[in-house]
Specification:
single chain; alpha+beta; 60s Ribosomal Protein L30, Chain: A; two-stranded antiparallel ribbon; globular
Length: 148
């Protein structure tokens, strides 16, 4: 079973979530090697800390009463651009306005982030979920093409 995103064909029907507790660069790379697409949160722990696993262990150890304050403290550390090798833009006005990259390349893996169903031609969010999905996949395709 395969699936396709633009010109990119994936042999395993898996798209991993961009959540710090689910996908790290190693996991995303492994998912990619088996034919899936691992999605990394580019505004998360992996792009803020060299010792990301240590931070995740710290988060896991928070008592419920301390969790919100603890998470705020961990995420207060700014994103470290040096932890990302190649920043990729799709030209969205939101990328410059809010200071994020649509994708980054690390070694032979491309991590795409912040992709919605927004229509940049009309600058509106379509009502239908089908059109939103097409727009999101087109934005991901554009980022992958930009990355080469």
């Amino acid at each position: 079973m395969t699936w396709q995103l633009g010109d990119h064909t994936f042999s395993y029907p898996l798209l991993a979530s961009a959540m710090d507790g689910v996908v790290n660069p190693t996991t995303a790379g492994l998912i990619g090697k088996i034919g899936g697409l691992g999605v990394l949160n580019l505004e998360g722990i992996q792009s803020r800390y060299v010792d990301a696993d240590q931070q995740l262990e710290k988060i896991a150890g928070f008592a419920p009463a301390d969790a919100t304050r603890g998470l705020q403290e961990v995420y207060r550390t700014p994103v470290d651009i040096d932890l990302m090798v190649q920043r990729i833009s799709t030209g969205s006005p939101f990328e410059a306005k809010f200071g994020y990259s649509r994708a980054v390349r690390h070694e032979d893996t491309i991590y795409v982030s912040g992709t919605t169903g927004y229509d940049y031609a009309t600058m509106k969010m379509p009502d239908g979920v089908g059109e939103q999905a097409r727009n999101a996949l087109a934005t991901i395709d554009k980022a992958l093409r930009e990355a080469g």
